[in-house]
Structure formats: C-alpha cells, structure tokens
Design a protein that fits this description.
heterodimer, A: 223 residues, mainly alpha, Four Helix Bundle (Hemerythrin (Met), subunit A), B: 422 residues, two-stranded antiparallel ribbon, 11 helices, 4 strands, binds copper (II) ion
Chain lengths: 223, 422
Amino acid sequence: MPVAIAPPEVKPETEREDRLPEPGGPGGGSGSDGGSGRWGDGGGRRLRPDSYQLGMWLALASISMMFIGFSSAYILGQGTNSQWRAMAAPPFVWINTVILLASSLSLELARRAPAATELKRWMTLTCLLGAAFLVGQLWIWRLLGDQGIYLSGNPHSSFFYLLTGVHGVHLLGGVAGLATLTARAWSSAPGVPARASLNVTALYWHFMDGLWIYLLVLLFFWR
Amino acid sequence: MAGPGLGSGQDLWIISIALFCIASLLGALNFITTVLNMRAKGMSLMKMPLTVWTWFTTAILALLSFPVLLAAGILLLLDRLGGTSFFIPAGLVVSDTVIESSGGSPILWQHLFWFFGHPEVYIAILPGMGVASQLLSTFARKPIFGYHAMVVAVFAIGMLGFFVWGHHMFVSGLSPFSALVFSILTLAIGVPSAIKTFNWLGTLWGGKIRFTTAMLFAIGFVSLFVSGGITGLFLGQTSVDVQLHDTYFPVAHFHMIMGVAAIFGIFGATYYWFPKMFGRMLHEGLGKLHFWLTFIGVNAIFIPMHLMGIMGQLRRYAESTEFKFMEPLQPYQEFVTIAAFVTAAAQLLFLVNFCWGMFKGKKATENPWEATTLEWITASPPPHDNFGGRELVVNHAAYEYGVPGAPRDYVMQTDPPLESAK
Ligand SMILES: [Cu+2]
C-alpha cells in the first residue's frame, strides 16, 4: 500500500506557491525568518522556497528506507533460499529504461527552458514518456505472465513484481504531479508553473529514475 | 492461515497499519520541516524548549522507521493475498495441512518488525522526556540542568535506537557475534539515559519546588524511567536474556517504561497544558489523589510482575495452573490482578476531573504556572491564530528561571533583553 507518497507533497504546495517570486531560487538566509508573517491560516504567511526542497528530501529519505527494507529481504532470500531461481531480464526492460532516462532528460530541458512555450512542450513530453514507461511496465508483466512467470511462482519473480510494482506506484504519483504542473502551464495566463513546484517535482522524478537503475542492478546483476 | 472469518480481519488490520504508517510519515515530514524552517524570529535551535527537541527527534525516528514497517506490511499482505511466501517457511504445517511455500523466512519478519519496533518505543517515550524536562524546570524554578547535554542525549538515544533491534531476537537464532554487537550497543544507550536522569535530578537539586499535580507526574516519570529502564540493562545482555526471555520480566520492564512512564508524561502534560487548551484549571486535590493512586498502583502491578518473571512465570499462557512450577505464583497473579483493577478504576478520577474542569474549573490566566515558553504569552485558550497577529521575537533561552537581576523569578522567552546583559 505505498499509495503515492508524492501527490500529497505536490498538491498543497502548488496552490500556495504562486505567490513566490519566480526564479528567485532556493538558498536564502538560514533558519529563522519563518515567523516574519502572521501565524494564522490567513494570507500573509510566507514560506521559504527551500521548505519544499527540504520536505522532498525528507520524503525521499523515507522512501529510501522502505526500499532498503525490501532490499534486505531480497538479499536475505537470495542468500538463504534454496528454491531461489533467478529469472533473466525481459529484453523490453532495457527499452523501458531508455524511455525513463529520456523523461528525466526532457524534464531537465523543461526546467532550463528560457521561454514558456518551450517549457510547456518539454513538460508535456515528460508526462508522455512517464506514462509510456508505466504502460511499458504493464506490458512487461503481461509478457512474463504469458511465459508463466507470476508473482507467486519463484522467490525471485515475487521480488521482481514487488519491486517494479512499488516503484511503479511511486512513478504514478510522480506522473500525477507532473500532469498537474503541465496542465497548469497550458491553462494559466503567464504559462509558467511556480518554480519551486517544478524543482521539487523534478527532484522526485530524478530520484525515481535513479531508484529504477538501482532496482535493475539489484534484480539482475547482484549475485 | 487463520480461523474462519478471521482472514479478512487480518487483511484489514494490515491495511490499516499501512495507512497509519503513511500518516505518521507525512506528520513527521511536516514536523521536521517546520522545526528547521519556520521558527519564530530569534528562536535559534538552542533556544527551543526541550519538548520541541524531543518531538523533532521523534519525528526523525518515525520518518526512518515507519517505512520499514510499511515494507514489512506490504510483504505480509502479498503473502496473504498474492500467493507469495516471503515469510512462510518451506514445509510449514498448520492444522495438519502442509502450507504451500517457496521457502520464505519468518526471521525476516522479526528483523523488519523490530527494526521498526525498537525506534518505535523511543517514539513513545521521547516526548515524555521532553515533557518531564519542561515541567521539572518550571516547577523547580530553575533552568534545566545541562540543556546542551540534554539535547545531545536525546539525539544519541534516538540514533542508537536504530542499531539495537537484534536485542529482541537473542533466542531467535542470531549469530553469537551479531548478538554481542547488539548487546553492546544496547547497553551503550544506558549512558545518554543516565545523563538525562542525572540532569533531571540536578534540576531538582536546590530548587524551590512547587508540588503541583503536573510536577508530581513529572517526578513520577523520572522514577518510572529509572525503575523501568534499569531492567533494560538486564535484558540487553544475551546470557541473562536467554533465561528471562518470554517470562513476565520483559513484560514488566516494557510496560513500566514504555507503557506507564510514557503515560505519566501524557498525564503530566495534560495537567500542565489543560489551562492553555481549555482556559480552565483542573482540580489540584483530585489530581493529586489521582497521581498517588496511580503511582502506587502501577508499582503494585509491575514490581511483583518482575519477581514472577525471575521465578519463571511464562508469558502468553491463558492458564498457568497446568504447570507445577508456576502454581506457587498464583497468589502473585491474584494480587497483580486486583492492583490492576484498582489502578484502572483510579483513572475515573482523572476522567471526572477532566470533564468537570472543562466546564466548571477555575478560570485560567495567561500564564498560571509562571512559565517561560511561547505558549504562555497568549490568552488561555489561544485565539484562532494563536498569537492574535502579534509578531514574536525571541530573546531568551527556554528555561530562564531565577536569573539574577531579572524583575521576576522567571524571564519569558519574548521578554526584552535584560539590562545587565547589555
Ligand atoms: Cu528494543
């Protein structure tokens, strides 16, 4: 049940964030100007941009701990279970990996886009690539099912479905976040989503990218 | 693997635990970010009340330990619903039928659970430590003894807590070497715990102590922290633990420290912050009666329970009369049972006090305890935006009691800087 930990972070902040100065990037003073506004739920409260960055890093630390939990289970099973039969990597996995890496690249291009029109296009491409990866993942599961490799068969296939599934749920949350930002970029008049939202979503997305590479190494190269 | 109708209950239980994990994660994330990024003007980290420090450490523990429980819950749910066998060992026989399995490991469950489980006991007790520090300082009218050492000790307890989970598994088939490492790390937690106890006693030493109900519960917390914590040193040693494992001894240890001490923290906090929450005072006489009955009651329950454990009383048995060696312990069982009922009944006093206090209690002023921290500068109960639109500037450390040259015996955190300091 790792129901997307991403959306709760992405949504509330995008709403408030429109008030932030656009490119005014992270990294202001340290620690103590948080109370400069009023303390109520009312309007004047200012949040420093790197609160979001910090919050996302903490969320990523937490997500990492979950995958460390899974990894230790994996390594223990691989080392001690006599019924462990490693399956070969489905070839389509590599194509899917290229799609995911491309999505990170296009998101980075969106982040550095000088003009709103380009930003919108790269964002849209990123969303499509992210969705394509998820569809590709479902496709891989189907191909495996056709070969008789299921969740419940062998310990190794159990872990393949588990790890790719939990990663996929996290990506689904990421795609939802990206889609929200993209939709906003197309609809709103200035056309540029708040910088901090974009930065924080990009951080999440790149992390999921790296996590995917890690999972592939664990599943198919770790012996 | 459950009785008829029980299976779906277990599934729902696991799902609800998973939801709880996610909720705790989000709460912890919010708390850490708020503490690091959104403090009042002038509130440096080392001016924060110890309550905030302990909650901050608690949030870090929750952030890093709950995801592991979530992972374990997902594996368990897949074992139950997805036909996997992460935890089901090969050749397991339940009710005369062999359970189909591709060779999982039940010990893996113990590892994942206790990796979460040990930090979790600190998640329960650390806020109580913060409350005790705040209350002891306030009612002894003295700054907390060794503020910096307290912060370091809280952090040390929290971080060491991640590396000791194996002490729950000394009899599960751990390699003797890792058992030794877990044992040494576990005993090492005694050091920061002793620092905290020493500092609490140092805070009380020579203070003008005001024995309010809240203060009694704070002192009770320290007492229970010592009597419940000291037995942890017994259980943290492999050779002693092998003897005491699965007896009443760890049950008594666990409930004394994580159950009762933490609850004393909650009671102390309730008696202390009730006026701020509801604008009315609780009845002190009734509160003191509640304290004494509870304090004597819990000791009457758990001290005999320790003795029973040493004498071999096993836990998790519905009936202990079947075993000859447990028979002489029956009078203890009866005594503990009666003590438990009396102690539970004493909690009605608290309930009555709480309900009565909410509507009929004496009206509370802004700062009835003459305390120093931020919440006491605003009205009781606070207005909707807490400080009525005021901008707070913090000039003082959290516990400035009895400062020479100050106009009162306490200096609030928002008071202007003292003349002598300029
Ligand atoms: Cu423990």
